Amino acid sequence: MELRIKLFLAFLAVIAVFALYKTSSKFRFLSLADVGIPVTSQLPGVNNDPDNDGLTNSEEDYWTTNPNNADTDGDGYLDGDEVVNGYDPLISGLTPIGGSVTDQFVNLTLSGFVEGSLKEDSPNYFQSLDDITSSVIDRVEAGQIASIEFPTVQSTRENQQIYLESLKPIFKDLLIAYYGEAYQLIDQLENIGAKGFSNSEVISFFSQYTNIALNISRSFQDVKVPENWKKEHEILSSFVTNFRNSNSSLQKGQVDPINATNSLNALIDMAESVPSLVEAYEQKIKKEELGVKNYFQSIQ
């Protein structure tokens, strides 16, 4: 299903959220244009950035982050990386600066009702729906932190064998975690459908897998990648990043249900990429003649 269709369905599903916001007078009119993001032309010096998170001490003051803690909110991302990518360094997980995707949807929807374009008799009704959907899609797509960066080494046979061996426990943990979560998703979908993202069992479930994904991500960052394996490693990196980001967004589904809905779709769709990921590694092993047979079967 295309992202536009998924988000349009989310649009309809979140009408209930819109009603809740409306009756409780919790609309927030925020604009990213009103939020300044300090940008420096070069990395700050060590003395001016004691925690090496990419933010100078003055920038730490601006964002009210901890100058002695590179990851103030403890979500696995450096404060500087979150700021550069448009995320709030004080809120765990990937929460956009200036409000959530749902906040944007609610504000746009309210504006459409007020000025009349979202009234059913408006000649611009369907165009307004499309504009709102497009805006939310742009926000979702812009809110993707790049895949995990990784150190590289020369493409010697020894380095390639070390690389594959170091990946074994990571592959094992990743596949067990992903399929273990997928096996339980039906129950969680029922909970979400009946009780919403604010249900304590739903939050606990995705919090557990957020922590598991974060630990896998941290182990993954230490792997030294042979230059000739960069393409395959980037595929794996994207899988790890998507697994981590999706669970992080789902954990916060009660405050951003549209982004959580998209993340749920992404988590389910990841199953389709597992066979191609496995095949990419098996084919590369064969091409490089590394003498490793049935690599994934050897992961115990």
From TrEMBL:
Family matches, as InterPro entries: EF_Hand_1_Ca_BS, TSP3_bac
Q: Where in the cell is it found?
A: Secreted
The UniProt entry, under Pfam families, shows: TSP3_bac
Keywords of this entry: Calcium, Secreted, Signal
Q: Which named protein is this?
A: EF-hand domain-containing protein
Say which species the protein is native to: Candidatus Yanofskybacteria bacterium GW2011_GWB1_45_11
